[in-house]
Amino acid sequence: MKKLFHYSVLSVLSILLLSCSHSIKGEGEITNKEIKISPIKEISANGTFRLIYLFDGNNPRIVIESYKNLIQNLKIENSDGKLTLSETNNVKDSDLYNIYIYNPQIEKFDIHNLVNVDINSQLRVSKLTINLYDVSKFLANTIVVDELNVNVNDVAGISLKGTSNALNLTAEDTSNFMAPFLEVSEANIELSDVAKAEINVKSKLTGKISDNSSLTVIGNPAKDIQQKDLAVINFK
């Protein structure tokens, strides 16, 4: 566990150092650029921008709000229902770097580096998958799903509100999953290293927490969860 934790911290530090040593800053005029896209079900994002999702079932598009040189630096791929966003050169200390995604419902997010995701519309899908890495963040105020699969790594963090029939959560390293206002019927949880999670479970809680991880549970579900090492479970 210690080796894994140290490796995770060193990996994140390496990303940050690389960003500082080979990076550009926003220069010139601030502008908007709109790009039409085909409807997508999946987003993969790697960079230092803020990603804002807004529902639009009729006119899928991207609107980029930033400095002209940062917009030119952005790499965009749109094919087979997947949108991939990345940067040619790393971006440092930008005070305005927003990417708005207008699209029907999205089912999968793979988020890396320093990307911050804001879900500003209701996200209603049968199955939602969220994978977070590095120092990325994910915030959603209203999700309505049957099955929610979340994988959080490194020092990434996620905050969710809404409802889900089933939650499958894996959290490692120093990541955190905060969802006291996400009402879940059944949850299967696996926490390790020093990961933290707060969940609201009605019916059934299963899984395992180990190392120095901590879990806070709201509700009184039936429990079948293993607690190992110095891991802590708190019930509210």
UniProtKB/TrEMBL annotation:
The keyword Signal applies. It comes from the Bacteria. Residues 42-221 form the Putative auto-transporter adhesin head GIN domain. InterPro entries: DUF2807 (IPR021255). Keywords: Signal. Residues 1-25 form the signal peptide. This is Putative auto-transporter adhesin, head GIN domain.
